[in-house]
Amino acid sequence: MLLPWYYQRLGAKAVAINNRVLIVDDELSVRRLLFEVARRAGYEAFLAENGQEAIEQTKEIKPAVIIMDIKMPVMDGLEAFERIRADYPDVAVILMTAHGTVDTAVEAMKRGAFDYLVKPSNVTEVRIVLERAFQMRRLREEVAALRHEVQNKYQLGNIIGKSAVMQQVYKAVGRVAPTNATVLITGESGSGKELIAKTIHNNSPRRDGPFIKVNCGALPEGLMESELFGYEKGAFTGAVGRKPGRFELAHQGTLFLDEVGELTPPLQVKLLRVLQEREFERVGGTETIKVDVRIIAATNRNLEDMVHKGLFREDLYYRLKVVPIHVPPLRERVEDIPLFVDYFVRRFAAEAHREVPYVTPEAMELFKRYHWPGNVRELANVLERAVIMSSGVIGVQDLPGLSTTAASPAIVIPETGTLREILHQVEKQVIARALKAHHGNRVKTAQALDISRRALLYKIEEYGLGREGEEEGVVE
Ligand SMILES: Nc1ncnc2c1ncn2[C@@H]1O[C@H](COP(=O)(O)OP(=O)(O)OP(=O)(O)O)[C@@H](O)[C@H]1O
């Protein structure tokens, strides 16, 4: 049998439940028969004669499954079921009933019993129901373990970075997580916005609810609308059945609107309404759907600027920006880079079943000076490749992509001097940097700066930049 993915991932941890079954019946012959069936199926069977005994036994042996008659003296099965469930909500209870009391059993199912058997049942039937009850317990246990694993992963302690700028981010996450406030996370691509969003969710009272992500720029407008709000059967050609949207799926959880700046104006209006009223209609539908959803939005665009240019609604912007969190780009937290390098090198080495390679100080320097336009994601990719390609050491020569595009020196603006002098200083640095980037090639440099070659030569002369960047493939 092919095991489900979560089973495979959890491995041995998965079967954490015991194999105890408590059999409760006032008739000795039934107890005997069930005991034999359970024992042969490999379970550890225990016996009780009435509801009262069942409660006492449950406390003592903590069975995973209980199979119990409804009609019994002293305390009947239904009452015992209610009481046991109050203290042990996870135990799977199978109720047994004679023909006349099926209605009661159905009622018990509604209240959470796992299944019922109509007496007399044959041995196979009993065995199958028992098996299913144990399987359900195991699945529940696995889901709980998985949820626990995911929640642990998204704890602040697992986010890399000790820099002051990241401390600010953690503080904001800690403050906003317990609330229902809408959060707007800004930051460059790959800087960790989604990670922060998940961490907020997993530290919020909604942690047991869903975390649903939508990439607002991923689909054309019409499709995006039905993706967000769902559709009714026949809403458009191809809508063969009703489909819930992401807002509905995120009920009692968190909806993460990634790339929110990409939403078209009509969808911005719709989103605004949901934010204000927490209700909407499915595409092609008239029924108003109410949802309890916490919104976290993220963008790598400058939304304020988009508002000024009339590309993003101002009212929506303010609705989203109730609590803004800015995740700084990696180059602004250089002190965290060694931590990231250490973390990723270990992780990828473990994944590839290799020794953890040594990162030379020169390579580390390069990591610190590179400008990381793709941020943490880019650093992770570079390190993954380097770990696979390296033979024990990661040096500058193993990082060809970084060498040629290594960080250009920052432009320093002089603090004193006349405007003319300051501009000259800045211009000199800009030209020196461009020459270096093009390895001294003046045609390319002039093109990049959009000035004539003559003007460039003149400035090189004026600033004494004659040999700037002429060496081949220079890093430093
Ligand atoms: N501080 C961090 N600690 C550990 N891992 C991180 C950190 N920041 C980012 N990462 C990892 O880097 C990758 C990119 O992060 P994430 O997807 O959260 O970025 P993003 O800003 O949402 O990107 P995009 O804007 O492209 O959607 C992920 O694998 C994430 O787990």
Automatic annotation (TrEMBL):
GO molecular function, one term: ATP binding
PROSITE patterns in alphabetical order: RESPONSE_REGULATORY, SIGMA54_INTERACT_1, SIGMA54_INTERACT_3, SIGMA54_INTERACT_4
Residues with PTM 4-aspartylphosphate: D69
A Pfam family of this chain: Sigma54_activat
InterPro entries in the record: AAA+_ATPase, AAA_lid_NorR, CheY-like_superfamily, Homeodomain-like_sf, HTH_Fis, P-loop_NTPase, Sig_transdc_resp-reg_receiver, Sigma_54_int
Any one biological process term the GO annotation gives: phosphorelay signal transduction system
CDD domains: AAA
Keywords for the protein's UniProt record, in alphabetical order: ATP-binding, Nucleotide-binding, Phosphoprotein, Transcription, Transcription regulation
Coiled-coil regions listed in the entry: none
Annotated ranges, domain Response regulatory: 20-134
Species for this entry: Thermosinus carboxydivorans Nor1
Domain Sigma-54 factor interaction: from-to ranges: 159-388
RNA-binding listed as a keyword: no
SUPFAM superfamilies (alphabetical): CheY-like, Homeodomain-like, P-loop containing nucleoside triphosphate hydrolases
Identification of the protein by name: Two component, sigma54 specific, transcriptional regulator, Fis family
